[in-house]
Amino acid sequence: MSPDDRVYAYSAVLLGSPILLKLFDHNQTLAARVFRLIKQQEILLTVNRPHSEVMSINHAAGESPVVVSQPVFELIARARAASVLPGSLFNFTIGPLVKRWKIGFHGNSVPPLAEIQALLALTNPHHVILNDRDRSVFLQKSGMEIDLGAIAKGYIADLVRDFLRQEGVEDALINLGGNVQTLGGAADSESGSWGIGLKKPFAGPDELIGVINVRGKSVVTSGVYERYFELAGKRYHHILDPRSGYPLDNELLSVTVISADSIEGDIYTTLLYGMGVEKGLAYLAARPEIEAIFVTRDGQVISSSARQFTFTLLDEDFHQA
Ligand code: FAD
Ligand code: MG
User: Fold this and answer.
1) Of the residues 78, 105, 123, 218, which has the fewest C-beta atoms closer than 10 A?
2) Ligand 1 and 89: CB distance under 6 A
3) Whose CA is nearest to atom 26 of ligand 1?
4) Under 8 Å CB-to-CB from 255, ≥6 apart: which residues?
5) pLDDT, tens digit (0-9, with 9 covering 90-100), for 111-152
6) Which residues have CB under 8 Å from 137's CB, separation 6+?
């Protein structure tokens, strides 16, 4: 390792998540500009504050269409398209249920069944009307709420990558808390690639199942162990099943997607989590540009294929299927 290969890490808390930027130049100013870019996006997209472009749409639900900026309109169009795919359990109108459960936020609780059922009636993605001509978004029923929590971090990670590229940066990594996007490789490593830890569910923060090595790719993980609460011996995690209104439970602990763009990774982690291993593998067979690593409750680590990454298993509790 030469002195030029030193890695500099910058951190912040944004999007309710720990954010980490790695550069190979000591450049505090550039790091500050990256964090400002993330902050600007948070201000546009958040549903955790009373005002944002997305909240202005939610506030006008059942009343009137709201004109938004081009990038927000395009992101909403992507979220809607993923939500109306046949059989999709990705649903960007899940907002009323997310707000009611408050999983990962202060004041979480298990809502009564009748309340869940009433809120489910407000989560039909076909009830979101997009108008390209004036870039307006209309939620047809009062009480509907868009939530971009399953797509926005991926979108923002790609914006950071594009910004760093424009600034002439060749090697860098941005981690938005489970959403990693990389430029180039890691100049400080022998392999010349970025090693991204696959976290061991329900273990200490540094405990890993294994390491995923990539160059210039995105690595996004969605898991049941990230945001959850426990009540009467049962765990309730933050990925909700839009059919039942309860946390989406199947054989999976996590899904990781390796792809060029992080927005794709973010959409697919949620889509594939909903499909489960068997359907997910079949779905990916026709999509070589998207690769996934499924971690199951019975300790299996299953990759769809491994063209864009290498994986090294580290934990003996898990085995590669
Ligand atoms: P993913 O698995 O990709 O998505 C899960 C999230 O998507 C859930 O948390 C929920 O919001 C939503 N969701 C649940 N079920 C579904 C479904 N079936 N289909 C589609 N979406 C679903 N966290 C804080 O604690 N405080 C904050 O102030 C805060 N502000 C944020 C602002 C922005 C702009 C963004 C993007 C995130 C913010 N977050 C905040 C984090 C946010 O609440 C989610 O926890 C986070 O986006 C989940 O990302 P993930 O990649 O872990 O999960
Ligand atoms: Mg996601």
Assistant:
1) 105
2) yes
3) 16
4) 221, 222, 223, 269, 272, 273, 280, 292, 293, 294, 295
5) 999 999 999 999 999 999 999 999 999 999 999 999 999 999
6) 57, 65, 66, 68, 73, 76, 128, 129, 130, 131, 146
